[in-house]
Amino acid sequence: MIALNTIKAAAAFGLAAAIAPLHASEVFPNKAVRIVVNFGAGGSTDIASRIVAKRMSQELGQPVVVENRPGATGTLGPAYVAKQPADGYTIGLTPFGAMVVGPWMVKVSYKTSDFDYLGAFSKYRFGLVVNADTPYKTIGDILSAGKKSNQPLLFGTPGPATNLIFPMLTRTSGVKFEQVMYKSGTEAALAVVANQVPMSVSVSTEVLSQLQAGKLRLIASVTSTRWPEYPDVPTAKEAGFDALIESFLGMAVPKGTPADRLEKLRAAFKTTMADPSVRDELNRVGMEPAYLDGPTYDQLVEVERQKMGEQIRALGVPLPSQ
């Protein structure tokens, strides 16, 4: 009997020893978490993501590293994230451009329902900028030049959200524009500086230094408010043009991520955005802090996606075959 009990005890100990490493491996996270950014390094989206990643790493107790996957007007990143294991170790940037506008502008392999959202953390401040050597001082100047030209006016762009301004202007003026794609907003802005294209719609952080150096000129804010750095420059709406972009920047993980891991990531994300130093850093780089929780951002993305589809159809923008 003693021998039998000893065998049972040994077996139980062996089973416990075998199970212990499994429980240990379930601690989350126990390795680096990555954030896949859908634009190139150095742009506003990349900079804002790195600010958030640094603070989230403190909350999670593991490195949170940024991985840039630009391409396909900003939709390559979400397409990649949607196919990754739903284990909580891959977070993707889900800006309005890729989630609300992109699926209507280019053929994509993902749906907005393919993700569990952590939430939104910022809003872009967009503006229409031109090379300072051009004669353009207003949107009206650009449209007047376009009406006199036999060729479409070129503009630089990194993604679908900024593309949309120009069909809006075409609808009201008849002037035609043609896009030139770049991997980031910074690249597009530098192309304007180099006179490769005459204009772009850019985020403030991507062009402030060039504006201050006198190489670029801000024609109009294309968000709902003027830029604080240039309070005398009107919004496009104030200038009489129906051209407006309101675009949130959010994060998500692949659909089906375990609930406990999702909630831990959401909690770290929320705490990060409650940190005044994070909000200050975002403001310093021209990004407006704007926290929304995961379920709220999920609902907003879907509502705005449907509204955007109606708007794009009204603009007559060709839709991709899905």
UniProtKB/TrEMBL annotation:
Residues 1-24 form the signal peptide. Belongs to the UPF0065 (bug) family. This is Tripartite-type tricarboxylate transporter receptor subunit TctC. The keyword Signal applies. Keywords: Receptor, Signal. Pfam families: TctC. CDD domains: PBP2_Bug_TTT (cd07012). It comes from the Bacteria. PANTHER family: BLR1237 PROTEIN (PTHR42928:SF5), TRICARBOXYLATE-BINDING PROTEIN (PTHR42928). The keyword Signal applies.
